[in-house]
Amino acid sequence: MDRIVVQGGTKLSGVIPIAGAKNACLTLMPATLLSEEPLTLTNAPRLSDIRTMSELLSSLGAEVSSLNDGKVIAMSSHNADNHMAHYDIVRKMRASNLVLGPLLARHGQAEVSLPGGCAIGARPMDLHIHALEAMGAEIELRDGYLHAIARGGLKGAIHELRFASVGATENVVMAATLAKGTTVLKNAAREPEIVDLVKCLRAMGAQISGEGTSTIEIQGVDRLHGATHPVVTDRIELGTYMLAPAITGGEVELLGGRRDLVASFCDKLEEAGISVEDTPNGLKVKRANGVVKAVDVVTEPFPGFPTDLQAQVMALMCTAEGTSVLEEKIFENRFMHAPELTRMGAQIDVHGGTATVTGVERLRGAPVMATDLRASVSLILAGLAAEGETVVSRVYHLDRGYERVEDKLGACGAKIERIREDG
Ligand code: EPZ
């Protein structure tokens, strides 16, 4: 398993290009199942999660080609006649559950393995199930698989989600495009990745309105045609790399960065004394007067502060002036980075869903272990600011969501290298 070694203490400056969004691409790819015609995605990120989704779609009979060094994904589901998503693939990635809605819409049936829990929580699917049942699906959990059938096809329905679940919203929107009649989804998630999905589905001929608001309306149509769609910028990669100049000092321009994708995050950075400037090519971030002030954070569904940036901003708060209270309200166990940061000298007190961070003068480099995707990059950020050497192990977590992190940070002066290890 590879490790990443960081020598801390260098102020970063330079330019970092931001890739297409992992979490948009993971819901755009299953949309190929909704049409017999080709769907091509451009500006796709080069990540292991994308390769896992390609493997899953291929197992369902879709043809998936990665072109242009992985930045283009060309798919055709003309012969996709398998409706069973096997445990061996699904267990690798929770987002595999996003084939459930498209399979039901295409075949009127689906067998999808439950993804199982992951490091950050149990990750149940009750919201997906209740919504699809409201559309006429009969869904039974048996032998670790969801067995779903929609006799006579899915029907439009009016349904309110108990919680604004991103994945449940995506499954329902995709399923409803081919349902008989109109679906109104209330308390829908408002994330930019859902807006991007709707843009793509509309390009395929879907009749959808309200994306980005809490109520999305979908008129079912008989069929969808093919399309070519550019994947939206990754707001979580963007926010992550905005923290690199913030935690080390210096100045970095994030190419492709858009303030509207990270508005609440930018507000928090500016409250902490970090300057965020809009430029013709993206966003420029620098530490204004050298001091980072402690700020409080509560994670919420979009447009609130993103849970996927909580671990990263905790790293910044470890070196801030004052005490910061971070409340994680989306997942039940998303502070695994805290004990690892503590090994680097951070002062963090975790009680349930609340972490209280008291900033310290300097973190000290140490051997640490990545436990999940966003925790792993939080350790890298801490290592950039720490005195001495930090070795992050199990970086396969990192590679799920960040392409070539050592190249992107290294190009801004970071002393960072990957030690490739077999096994
Ligand atoms: C998406 O996961 C993202 N993944 C996550 O990013 C992100 O953290 C999350 O949305 C919240 O923004 C992808 O888009 C592939 P949810 P998802 O359904 O759809 C509970 C990353 O780091 N819940 O909004 O699974 C659930 O347990 C990943 O890139 C139910 O209780 O998130 C969680 O506590 C991590 N029942 C909360 O809702 C359900 O049926 C939010 O889940 C579904 C969810």
Helix content: 25-40%
Low-confidence stretches: none
Shape: elongated
Mean pLDDT: 96
Instruction: Give the biggest beta sheet.
Output: 4 strands, mixed
Task: State the distance separating the first and last CA atoms.
Answer: 6 Å
Bound compounds, each kind once, are:
ligand EPZ
Note the beta-strand portion.
25-35%
**Rg (CA only):** 21 Å
Strand order of the largest sheet: 22-23-1-24
Count of individual helical segments? 14
Fold and architecture overview:
- The protein is an alpha/beta fold and about 425 residues long.
- Helices cover about 30% and strands about 25% of the residues.
- It has 14 helices and 24 strands.
- The chain has a 4-stranded mixed beta sheet with strand order 22-23-1-24.
- Strand 4 (about 65) and strand 5 form a beta hairpin.
- Helix 8 (about 235-250) packs parallel to helix 10 (about 310-315) and helix 8 packs parallel to helix 12 (about 375-385).
- The N and C termini lie close together (about 5 Å).
- The model has no long low-confidence stretch (mean pLDDT about 95).
